[in-house]
Automatic annotation (TrEMBL):
Residue intervals of the 2-C-methyl-D-erythritol 2,4-cyclodiphosphate synthase domain: 5-158
Protein family per UniProt: Belongs to the IspF family.
Pathway(s) served: Isoprenoid biosynthesis; isopentenyl diphosphate biosynthesis via DXP pathway; isopentenyl diphosphate from 1-deoxy-D-xylulose 5-phosphate: step 4/6
Catalytic activity: 4-CDP-2-C-methyl-D-erythritol 2-phosphate = 2-C-methyl-D-erythritol 2,4-cyclic diphosphate + CMP
Cofactor(s) the protein needs: a divalent metal cation
Positions of a divalent metal cation binding: D12, H14, H46
Protein name: 2-C-methyl-D-erythritol 2,4-cyclodiphosphate synthase
């Protein structure tokens, strides 16, 4: 049975390490610390991949891009987003909107939010008005609030392409 709307949600968190690059939504954010991960570590893109996969009930980031796959080594996570957007369309759906937010207490993200939105909308193949990116500091609470980690959440709404 075709469902009129489907929702997916995603979350990712990575520790931050001095001397590494911080990439969020495909934007290199100036920061004294960044991700030490298999891909570029972009938690915002990773959360969005999980949300897209969840909306079509097709696994998660690790299902599509396993850590032990050499092809994913140092990969650009925005490419993962584009791949999953293609799978959403192949499943007969279109993306209605995406809502995301990032928590990082030690680096100001506001100056970079618009560039993140643009990158994500381009990777998704949707209009900029369909993508929201917000940031929070957590007021110094938790690992993300103290700068030991960075977290992101994403929610996506999809609808049948025939609608």
């Amino acid at each position: 049975m075709e469902q009129p709307f489907r929702i997916g949600s995603g979350h990712d968190v990575h520790g931050l390490f001095a001397g590494h690059t911080l990439v969020l939504g495909g934007v290199v954010v100036p920061s004294p610390s960044g991700f030490d991960t298999h891909s570029d570590g972009d938690v915002l893109s990773h959360a969005l991949v999980d949300a897209l996969a969840g909306a079509i009930a097709d696994g998660d980031l690790g299902t599509h891009f396993p850590e032990d796959d050499p092809a994913a080594q140092d990969a650009r996570s925005l490419d993962f987003v584009g791949h999953l957007a293609g799978l959403v369309r192949a499943a007969g759906y279109e993306i209605a909107n995406v809502d995301t937010f990032v928590v990082l207490g030690t680096t100001k993200l506001r100056p970079h939010l618009e560039a993140m939105r643009i990158n994500l909308s381009d990777a998704l193949g949707v209009d900029l008005s369909q993508v929201s990116v917000k940031a929070r500091s957590n007021d110094g609470f938790g690992d993300a609030g103290t700068g030991r980690a960075c977290e992101a959440w994403a929610t996506v709404l999809i609808y049948p392409a025939s609608a």
